[in-house]
Amino acid sequence: MNDRPRPWTMQQIAEAAGVSVTTVSHTLSGKRPVHPDTALRINRLIDEHGYVPDAGARRLKSGRSQVIGLAVPDISHWYFGRIARGVEEMANEHDHGLIIASTSNSDPRREKRYFNMLRTRAIDGLVYTASREIKPTDELVSMASSPAPIVLADEDIEELEGLPSVTSTNYSGARDLGRHVRSLGHTKAVIIAGFPGLHSTVQRMRGIRESFPNALAIHGDFEIRSGYELMSDLIAHEVKFTAVFACNDFMAIGAMRRLWEEGLRVPEDVSVVGFDDVDMASVVTPGLTTVRQDMLEIGRQSAKLLLDGLAAGSMEGIGSVRLPVELVLRGTTGPVAD
Amino acid sequence: MNDRPRPWTMQQIAEAAGVSVTTVSHTLSGKRPVHPDTALRINRLIDEHGYVPDAGARRLKSGRSQVIGLAVPDISHWYFGRIARGVEEMANEHDHGLIIASTSNSDPRREKRYFNMLRTRAIDGLVYTASREIKPTDELVSMASSPAPIVLADEDIEELEGLPSVTSTNYSGARDLGRHVRSLGHTKAVIIAGFPGLHSTVQRMRGIRESFPNALAIHGDFEIRSGYELMSDLIAHEVKFTAVFACNDFMAIGAMRRLWEEGLRVPEDVSVVGFDDVDMASVVTPGLTTVRQDMLEIGRQSAKLLLDGLAAGSMEGIGSVRLPVELVLRGTTGPVAD
DNA sequence: CTGAAAGCGCTTACAG
DNA sequence: CTGAAAGCGCTTACAG
Question: How far is the CA of B20 from the C1' of C13 (A)?
């Protein structure tokens, strides 16, 4: 079926060098001394033929594939792309490959594939980034208790408490944002929140409500369009507010666009804030006040925890990590109009 | 080192079912008939213990890993994220895994890793997306002649003519854009181009110059900041123009921002166009006139070509693909001011 | 400093 | 419809 020339095997290198495969293997691994002359001869052959040991055979003996997996809802999304980049960087630094798999909103068939990969040892461990819908499959839940080599990135999951996780300090970030807006004199605020089931959404709402206990909350799906449409609803219902908290920047930007179409000025008539600090946040006019999350670092740390556990031989004793966030003041927040 | 419980082997399933591993293997593969009762018994055991055949052992025999690789400069970038998503979708539809690797601007050490993966058969094939710098390593060049199972996505490379590629019709897209702007009466245009070495940049410049033969061209790095700074330079040098062609949307948006700061109105004073149609293009004010590329489809088709070649056992006879683009007229282009 | 041999967990002719 | 056995390409005790 495949007529590509088969690459050289260790056996062939050994024959060409007039030694045993044992010696070639040890020349490669350095796990026992090899006579310099012999080593030189072998290394010449290796270079000459571009020999590389077969990954599968190696794994069959060692039991480790040197590959970790990353499950994300959508790799093409800015947010998950940053996480992926971080995971990939860390994996690379530790000489591991990265298998990426879109869960595309928790298609259970797809998810099953990743856990199977884990079981077939195609991957040694998994960084799992919760989909928007957040209902872990039974499979995941059952693995969580093992404890399997799985780390949750970006989002904690109730049912998966046994697993280490890396998340932002959503609560305190939102609290700072709330205080900032409150300090500008605002009292009537609305929250364009994320999926109600997400930990991060719950935390951010709690943070905001510390300053705005009665803020009206409506839920969107984190996309620009969603912010736009929810703002349309608020306007249609003649809801009164002077400040808008969106649970991410995209929804904030969608809302801003709708306000602009309505002839409402930001921040003169309405203050708007987001969460994340995406690229776009500094490009829209005026620049968006928001909270910066370090998604790259979330990815890096998640991979780190996983690789640490793998190296230790067990996830036992691997703790979770909370990463700080940073308030970024730009042009969309201003004193309340009187 | 690793004290996770070892999963069941086929041998153990066979013993528990009172049959040989041969029969278990055939029950799994369906490559020869198995008595229904026997099959039932085996399948029960398999389900019960969540048995999955070891990927490495399987590959050792079959010679195929069922995993393809994707090399991109930066997975967290919108542009490459879309490609990755497409590749992943197609791989998934063909029951293949996807190993992602950032080339991070052609770090030669990293690139070497991917070609090694190819050689160790950790991956069966590679979708290669050219970095911005575009100087393929000798390694890649030597593989291109094999022909190795490699497909170029998004960008053609001179030295790698032997490899199949999937790209947009950059020339005709830029030509349409040029004609559109020309038809609005503009005669003085500048081009904020991409890296001079990229095929796509060359093609787009050619397309624009069909309508604006004398357009001044300066080169940027495709980022927002770059468009902003190049526009600053043009302004500082008091270059006269009424239209700006940017080789991608990000640079167009950066340029718009700088024009806005300068008090120049778009499109009343200056018309601006981009290329790509990124999310942001429809969100900025006014909406950006651009050319839509289907990056997802570029990813999908690239993977398709690769998988086709893999299935056929050879890349011999796998052709290249050119995907159409679409002119998207929004608010940044208008009649030339008189 | 080196080698013969067992074995990792599968697949697949070969034989019945 | 089923099984014994060879072998994929390595690693690693064991022996010298």
Answer: 16
